[in-house]
Design brief:
Layout lengths: L2 H13 L18 E12 L9 E6 L5 E7 L3 E8 L8 E3 L23 E7 L4 E6 L4 H7 L3 E6 L8 E10 L14 H4 L8 E4 L2 E2 L5 E4 L3 E9 L6 E5 L5 E5 L2 E7 L5 E3 L4 E8 L6 E6 L8 E8 L30 E9 L7 E4 L2 E4 H8 L3 E3 L2 E2 L11 E3 L3 E9 L5 E5 L4 E6 L2 E2 L5 E2 L1 E4 L4 E8 L3 E7 L2 H5 L3 E6 L1
Parallel strand pairs: 1-4, 3-8, 9-13, 12-20, 21-27, 22-25, 26-35
Antiparallel strand pairs: 1-2, 4-6, 5-7, 7-8, 9-10, 10-11, 13-18, 14-17, 14-19, 15-16, 15-18, 19-20, 21-24, 22-23, 27-33, 28-32, 28-34, 29-30, 29-31, 29-33, 34-35
């Protein structure tokens, strides 16, 4: 890609959001805005309140996870970010349709924030929903160390609930001294399923039956679940309750029951649940990760009924459907067709990819380049990114994107700056046609999505198994 585009985007970041975004999608920044200070730093925490051992982590504002940010749709925000880490960083606002200059991708939309440096992110929140924030600099390490937090944009008219709770689910890799294992970026992780921690965390604390979410009989609960792990997926189930799904990735869907065999939540994904708590005082029910068969279920926490009087004797009957965000509807009939082919990995058919324009077998790419994946037959290091974009689109263009996974691995694919409709899996139409910003591709599977390219800039498109992204499954889509 010509360097002048990169330079222009980085200059735009310094000038602020108004230079990068058209009026139809984003209004001008309001005169009043909320200012929030975020500092990335190293510190130690007690992961288990029953244990005095403290673990060294990285995080925002010396919290694990970082402080939950809550706003209303239409708010203008100013995140003043300071870097007190020993390496460069940046902050990406996962799922938010921000101006390109505020997207937080080093060497694409901004220069990385050096140690001791700072950066001001300013944007208006156009979409309600469940989102999160994390670095896009050495993400496979920085997210794994603890740099992540929830960001909630509340609806103008939210569904009637008694409580709104957020669970950030993640994992961490610890040694016998309860310190983090310093093995980030191993080629064995990059070329396989990614780096999996050996301890699951819920809101920064050790998961298990002792992680109690106390409820009252008759209470209606909205539970927002965020998978902030760098590679681990969860298959979630709730004992004794008919939970209903009301949103994927912050976007409302027709409310429907949580599947009996669990809901797959891959890295980067979010789901909002409504739970009518109709148990009795003193009862306790497990929230479980069923994992991949034949793995045994892991208890993440429990719904624990308090002895307080019941809130009500019957479930609420009010609607839990969410009002939709204002997202341009793609028209498949007039959309341009584009294909992205995914290849690579340590097992499967050997392939040939291009690194710096030179063809190499995947075994050579793994051994010599530290890369393991190709997108449209190209592989690139995370720091360099794609010299040429995967796609170049016109502003307002309707796009049909066909993703073809020729690998033997799962890949949760995330597009910055846009939502897309999931239309078909292996050629079969999806029943919900839901909006997503992250979609899972199973091994040897094809997925068709559609969107309107209405947010100008250079946007990251990558696998959210962060080792895969670092190993070549990361590129950009340009909207001009």
């Amino acid at each position: 890609m010509p360097i002048d585009r990169r330079q222009f985007l980085q200059a735009s970041a310094a000038l602020g959001a108004s230079l990068a975004v058209p009026a139809p999608l984003f209004a001008s920044v309001k005169a009043t805005e909320r200012r929030i200070e975020l500092t990335s730093s190293a510190f130690s925490v007690a992961l288990d309140p029953a244990d005095t051992a403290r673990t060294a982590v990285w995080g925002f504002n010396e919290q694990l996870p970082g402080p939950t940010q809550r706003f209303r749709r239409g708010d203008s925000v100013h995140f003043a970010v300071r870097n007190d880490l020993p390496q460069d960083t940046a902050v990406h606002w996962h799922g938010l349709r921000v101006p390109n200059a505020m997207d937080g991708v080093p060497r694409v939309t901004q220069h990385p924030i050096p140690p001791g440096g700072s950066f001001d992110y300013r944007f208006e929140l156009r979409d309600s929903g469940t989102y999160w924030y994390h670095p896009h600099q050495a993400s496979f390490e920085q997210v794994s160390r603890g740099l992540y937090g929830a960001l909630i944009v509340e609806e103008e008219k939210p569904p009637q609930v008694d409580r709104d709770e957020v669970w950030v689910i993640s994992d961490i890799k610890l040694n016998v001294q309860r310190q983090q294992v310093e093995d980030f970026g191993r080629i064995l992780d990059i070329a396989n399923d990614g780096r999996i921690g050996n301890q699951i965390l819920v809101n920064g604390l050790v998961a298990g039956p002792q992680r109690k979410l106390e409820v009252r009989a008759g209470e209606r609960l909205r539970l927002r679940l965020i998978n902030a792990a760098s590679a681990r997926f969860f298959r979630l189930a709730i004992e004794g309750h008919q939970a209903r799904i009301i949103a994927f990735d912050g976007q409302g869907v027709t409310p429907h029951p949580l599947p009996a065999d669990g809901l797959a939540l891959w890295p980067g994904m979010r789901v909002d649940l409504i739970i009518d708590c109709m148990g009795a005082a003193g009862q306790s029910f497990s929230l479980r990760d069923l994992g991949r068969p034949p793995a045994a279920a892991t208890v993440l926490g429990t719904l624990a009924y308090s002895s307080q009087p019941a809130v009500r004797s019957k479930p609420l009957t009010s609607s839990v459907a969410l009002a939709p965000n204002r997202i341009a509807e793609p028209d498949p009939g007039k959309a341009s067709d584009h294909y992205i082919i995914f290849q690579g990995g340590m097992r499967g058919t050997p392939v040939i990819g291009l690194v710096d324009g030179k063809p190499s077998r995947i075994q050579e790419i793994i051994a010599k380049q530290g890369l393991a994946w190709t997108m449209n037959y190209n592989a690139q290091h995370e720091a360099a990114l794609m010299h040429e974009p995967l796609l170049q689109l016109r502003t307002g263009e309707h796009v049909m994107l066909h993703m073809v996974n020729e690998t033997d691995f799962f890949h949760p694919m995330h597009l910055h700056g846009h939502f897309f409709r999931v239309l078909a899996i292996d050629g079969k139409e999806t029943p919900l046609r839901e909006w997503r910003d992250t979609v899972i591709m199973a091994p040897r599977q094809s997925i068709d999505v559609a969107f309107v390219a209405d947010n100008p800039g250079e946007w990251m498109y990558h696998c959210h198994i962060l080792d895969h992204a670092a190993g070549g499954m990361m590129g950009t889509i340009v909207v001009e």
